[in-house]
Amino acid sequence: VIENGDDHDYFEKAKALIQSIISNQSTKVDSISGATFSSNGIKSAVRAALKKASSISEGDNSEELNQELSKMREENKKLNELIKTLNNKIEKLERESQNASPKAYKDGNYTGVNTYVLDVDGTERSLSVDVQISDGKIKNISVISIKPIKNGDAIFIDKAKEGTIPNIIEKNTTSVDAVSGATYTSNGIKDAVNDALKKAVNPSDNTDSKDLINKLKQSIEDKEKVEKEKKTLETENTSLKEQNTSLMSKVEELQKKIKEMTSSIPSTTKAIHENIMSTLNSVMGIEKVKTN
Which regions form coiled coils (predicted)? Predict the structure, then answer.
């Protein structure tokens, strides 16, 4: 600084404050005794410069995104609990149906279809299965078609089939866990089997049995509805996470620039130095600033 609006001796004393601000990485430092006004002017100028440097566009609102993510996590937790409750309800109704009637399902072969979206790339996939019912129980399940299939999909489809189908047959219910690493196709198979089972429900003449079977059908439909809501929520949650990651990246980059600017003032670039000095000029009445 060559010339300024303060007395030269006072301002020379106050300049020592700059090193103190750099060392503490903060403007919350004591003013220089005997040069209080100049010290406060420098601190105000640096605060103004840092505020200008750390401003974020109105569209990037980290707090709102985090609140939205928190709400979605809560909603997802509730949906998971509801799905678990519905799974238990379906299992109970299936047991009651089998006890009330010799055959909960009519013997025969039934086709079930399901369309689901792969959240990985947004591809919509159609899946159909053939479900064989024997003696009122699920005897066999075969996948008739899955399309489209892209390169690399086969390994995940086989994994889903090998892990999901035997489990459904063994437990005589679709209330089984999805296969880790092949979640979308596992759930697609379960939903397609549910579609087939709705067609296979045995319309018994027994009133109690009919009531149980209707409840079973309704429970299956309720579960399908909740799982669709969960998938939608997961897609929205993924989108928000991506936005939040992008925002955090911008904030980190900005924080890095601020740190570089405040920790290397003696050798800072001309552009950044002039930005800080121009703010000092406007706040303190400095008439002329020179950069090295």
Answer: 62-103, 209-264
